[in-house]
Amino acid sequence: PGLRLIIPVVDNLTKVSMRIVTMPIQSQGIITRDNVSVDIAAVAYFRVVDARKSVVVIENVDSAINQIAQTTLRNVVGQHSLDEALSDTAVINGSIRQILDTTTLEWGVEVTLVELKDIQLPDTMKRAMAREAEAEREKRAKIIAAEGEARAAAALGEASDTMMAHPLALQLRNLQTLLELGVEKNTTVVFPAPLMSAIGEVAAFLSRETAAAAPLTQPV
Questions:
Q1: What per-residue confidence (pLDDT) applies to 72?
Q2: Residues 33 and 96 reside in one and the same domain
Q3: How far from the centroid of its chain's Cα atoms is residue 192's Cα?
Q4: Predicted structure pTM score
Q5: CA distances from 98 to 42, 81, 108 (A)
Q6: Which tens digits make up the pLDDT trace of 147-179?
Q7: Which InterPro entries does the UniProt record give (predicted)?
Q8: Is 116 exposed, middle or buried (0-12, 13-18, 19+ CB in 10 A)?
């Protein structure tokens, strides 16, 4: 910045932008650590911090950064598995930026940010992942169904214990079921002899309870 003396023929004036530059890193085929072929594109952001170095130290700094960004992207992603490339993009972005920055600072350029922009999987891998996701959903559905059956079995066990401890409750439940069937189907229900005997026992029990409670409700 400022005034400079330019000697014609001897000196050459070159304008250098100090603003942040966006550079797309074109998609390229990369083999991950677990031998899966993926196509990955990225984008890098950099700015010139030393105008003299960016002109004197290297020729065509933009092209140089693009080339080294492609090779660094391929090397870093190749050290990770597919799952890591899909889930740990922040780690990969940071590694690429750090490696690039180490080199480009010598050229008077600082890489401020690198982002993986697009990861394309082979069709066979997409189908395999879809099958895996479907299998996982089926597995979860079976687990939920099994848990429901276990809870239902536990509830039935508790109900069975209650019925065994209170025979009259079991008979009342049988009577209720028969009455519900008769109402729903609009049919005549024939009560078996054992159940009629149980009904008599229930009636006698209710009569006793009513008689025992009657003195308590009489006015003084």
A1: 93
A2: yes
A3: 58
A4: 0.55
A5: 15, 20, 15
A6: 888 888 777 777 767 666 766 666 666 666 666
A7: Band-7_stomatin-like (IPR043202), Band_7 (IPR001107), Band_7/SPFH_dom_sf (IPR036013), Stomatin_HflK_fam (IPR001972)
A8: buried
